[in-house]
Design goal:
Order of helices and strands: HHHHEHHHEEEHEHEH
Strand order of the largest sheet: 1-2-6-5
Structural class: alpha+beta
Distance between the termini: 69 Å
Largest sheet: 4 strands, antiparallel
Number of helices: 10
Shape: globular
Radius of gyration: 27 Å
Low-confidence stretches: 34-45, 48-54
C-alpha cells in the first residue's frame, strides 16, 4: 500500500542515484586519461610512467646494443669430484650459525672487501646489479645506528609485533637491546636499488630487484662463513628511512638487510637448533 502511494518518489530517487553514479564514473575516467595497460600485480617495479611509455621509440637498452658474447670459461668436473665438493660445501655451510655476541677484535678490511666482491657476483635482472653495500666501522656511526634501531625495536617489541611474534622469539632470548651493533667490528647494510641513472642521464629500471638482492644476500652469507667470520641477518623494522638518511643514501635505495660481521665473542652461546631434513625441503617429480 505504501509503495503504491509513493512509487514515483522511489523511481525519482533511483534515477538520481544512477545519474550521480554515472557522473562519478565519467569524472574518474577523465582523470585517468587513457586506460592503463595490464601490468603484473606482484612486481610494482615493472611499472613505468605514462611519460616513459610515450618515449619507448627513443629508448636504448641499459647494456650496449653490440654487447660482446664470449665463450663460457667452464671446466667440467668428474662426477665423483662434484659429489665430494657438494658434500664438503654442505658440511661447511651446515656449521654456519646466527651469532648475537661479537668480539671487538680487529678484522682486516681486505677480508670484508673480498666478501662484498663475492656477493657482487650474484645474478640480477637484466644485469642491473641493484645493490649497494654500506660498510660501517666508525664507532660513532655504529652508535648512531644502534640508537636508531634500539628506539624502534623497543616499540616493535612492546607494541607493533604482537604477542604471537614476541612469544615465538622468547626461546631465542632476543630483545630490543642490540649490543652487537657496536661490538662487531663491521656493520654491513645491504640497500636495494629500485632504479638508477644511466650515463646519458636517463632513468634505468631495475627488474626483479627484490629477488636479485635476496640471491646476493645468500652469497654474502656464504662468503662471510667461508672467510671464517660470523654474522647475523637483521631486518630493522621501521628503521630504513632514518638509516638511509644517516648514511646519505638516495631515496631510490631501500634498506634490505643489516649484518654485523666479525669474530664471535669468547664463550658465545647459540640456540641448539636443528634444521629440516632433505625430505622436508625437497619435492621431487
Amino acid at each position: 500500500m505504501f509503495f503504491e502511494l509513493y512509487w514515483q518518489y522511489f523511481v525519482a530517487g533511483l534515477l538520481l542515484w544512477a545519474t550521480v553514479k554515472f557522473g562519478f564514473c565519467v569524472r574518474n575516467s577523465l582523470k585517468q586519461g587513457k586506460p592503463s595497460k595490464s601490468r603484473p600485480s606482484n612486481d610494482t617495479e615493472l611499472r613505468e610512467s605514462d611519460s616513459d611509455d610515450a618515449t619507448h621509440e627513443s629508448l636504448s637498452p641499459a647494456l650496449p646494443k653490440d654487447l660482446k658474447h664470449i665463450p663460457l670459461n667452464f671446466t667440467k668436473l668428474p662426477a665423483n669430484i662434484s659429489l665430494e665438493r657438494s658434500k664438503e660445501f654442505y658440511e661447511l655451510m651446515n656449521k654456519r650459525r646466527t651469532v648475537r655476541h661479537f668480539s671487538k677484535e680487529f678484522v682486516p678490511k681486505e677480508i670484508v672487501e673480498n666478501i662484498i666482491r663475492t656477493a657482487g657476483t650474484a645474478p640480477s635482472g637484466a644485469h642491473t646489479e641493484p645493490w649497494t653495500y654500506v660498510v660501517v666501522s666508525d664507532l660513532t656511526t655504529k652508535q648512531k645506528i644502534r640508537e636508531i634501531i634500539e628506539e624502534q625495536e623497543e616499540l616493535n617489541y612492546m607494541k607493533r609485533m604482537g604477542k604471537v611474534w614476541t612469544t615465538d622469539l622468547l626461546p631465542l632470548k632476543t630483545n630490543w637491546i642490540k649490543e652487537y651493533l657496536t661490538d662487531a667490528p663491521y656493520l654491513l647494510l645491504v640497500f636495494k636499488q629500485t632504479s638508477s641513472v644511466k650515463p646519458d642521464g636517463a632513468k634505468k629500471l631495475h627488474y626483479y630487484s627484490d629477488q636479485s638482492v635476496s640471491i646476493a644476500a645468500g652469497i654474502l652469507l656464504a662468503a662471510i662463513h667461508y672467510a671464517g667470520l660470523v654474522s647475523l641477518t637483521s631486518t630493522p623494522l621501521n628503521c630504513g628511512p632514518a638509516l638511509r638518511a644517516l648514511l646519505h643514501r638516495p631515496e631510490t635505495e631501500k634498506l634490505s638487510l643489516l649484518l654485523p660481521v666479525g669474530y664471535p665473542a669468547e664463550g658465545a652461546l647459540i640456540p641448539d637448533l636443528s634444521r629440516k631434513g632433505l625430505n622436508e625441503i625437497m619435492v621431487e617429480f
